Amino acid sequence: MVGALSGPPHTPLPNPPSGIGLQAQGASIPTVQPQPGIPNGNIIIYRAPNFIVRTVNRTGQKVHPLRKPTGYTAVTPKVMPQQEQQVAVSETRMMPNVTLENKPQKSSIPLPAWLEAIIAFVALAGTSVAHAYNMFNFPRYELDEGTYISNAWAITQGALSPYPYGYGHPPVGWIQIAGWIQLTGGFFTFGNALNSGRVLMLLYAVASALLVYLIVSRMTGSRVAGVLALVIFSFSPLSITYQRQIFLDNIATFWMLLSIYFLVISRSRLLYIVLAGIAFGICFLSKEVFLIALPGMIYAAWLYTTKFQRKFSLVAFIYAIIALCSTFVLLAVLKNELFPYAWHLPWDNQPHLSILDTFIGQAERGQEGGSFIASWVDWVANDPFFIAISIAIPAFNLIYGWWNRKHLMLALLSICFWLLLIRGGQVLSFYIIPLIATTAINTGVALNTLLGWAGKLVRFDPVRVVLLLIVLAVVLPYDLQETGFRFYQHPTSAQDEAMVWVRDHVPHNSFIVVNSYLYMDLRVPEGAGVGDGAPFPHAEVYWNVAYDPELYTQALEGNWDRIDYIVADSEMLSDIETYGGPMNLIKTALEHSVLRADFRSDDHNLQIVVQVYQIIHKYPQPVVYIGVNSTTTPGIISPLPAGPQVWAEQRKLT
To answer: Domain check: are 478 and 524 in the same one?
Structure first.
């Protein structure tokens, strides 16, 4: 038997025990007894600083390990001098180090499993209540929410999108939404279509909060630090606003946190490393911009594997990610939509969308749709405390990370998402969603370290727990106070009322230009904008009316006069005025329209306004509509005599 051993230099072979001489054949052989120099009854044949060679003495063995079974005595010969010298000077590799440098932290105040379960349950219950209360009324429905819900509906119909799929995002995000819709019995189980999606976002928010708690608890050994991170993640006013909405970022954040959790608990086990790679691959396929966190994730995989297994583990982790991410490109290859049609490749003779065209277009987007400065103002107005710690805490972890690598890993994750935000180009306010998660984890781990120093200073570690509880007692009331109006404002009421007005007053064969959040409820039977009546088969999203050739060229023939109604909010009107080009078709129709209905509701410190315009065709109808009639339903415009002068006055009013 050969084994690695540290010990004194070469030890000569001990004298054999009594009874190992020439004996007569057939003589009885006594059982070997442990003797000095023979550990556990095994004889050391050769000893060197880096290894030993010894015999194996099995339990109950009757024959001495140095005696032949025949009974003839034969002591193993001495190693030949030249071999002994060669073995002694040879460079023997030591056994690899399989001990993790980053061991799981143990709590200084151990909690029984049942008490930890209660703490986690209470924290998650609070998260559920905070996110669920008033979530169908606040915040207002956004264009992206309607887009992802309509794409999920298309999945149930065997397509990737109700309009030609342009590779704006990978489809796995809304595939998950479609699976949820199938499980819950349809798009209108919870009211309108978007409400069903918001219920799913609630589940993702709670699951992500649990992962934040588990990650921080595992990394620090402190349950209080885990709860503090959970509170920062779940109760920030930014969280209450954006985590309620149907954004792919919320779905991708869950998968990113799951990947981090698998790495943190992996203890260098290959199964968990591969699961982490798969989770991050799904994260990318839910929202492609999360690929920017890949350097931080690779460093996390490096950190949580041993030096002995690091190469193989990193290859497995990266391969799992690449294998999943490549399916997005494979989709484009199989549809012959990888290269732009404008390249006129020999095999490419039909106009089509292209994944490369889309990526180039997204990279070149300006700040018309949203800028970092505008988003920054919005973030600071909603939660200045969070914005401050999202900069200060990663900066601390980055510096302290040179002494503690797990702090460096967390800092890199936050820095990756800050780079995404400050890169320039279009930055929308909800892009901060993944940064909320990484900041919460950074803060929990950093404060546990900082307050732990205070505990060491007074040589009483429970001081750290007390200080963490004090911080928690300050942060939670602050967040709830700042959240305020999110629990009682109803900005979606104006959008719902506009939908109902269209259902009751617009002919079902009309061509209606709408924002995407109205699409499903007007196009699908039993939608909130349809009720018991027939759907509106010609309700189309304004972006597609302008930029989809099938609508712009074939359905409308580039003629604004084919549009009958426009249902627009202030953001939609801003896009119509700003973008120009094909959007001028809708702009021209709007210039030949009359206001039919106006709906308003409070939204933050402003108002959301949704207006319904009827297009005045080249051959006007006998009447147009103008003026508010207080005796009719609020928001309804009463009829007045028609005429060019009346139309001109109406345009001045709007």
So the answer is: no
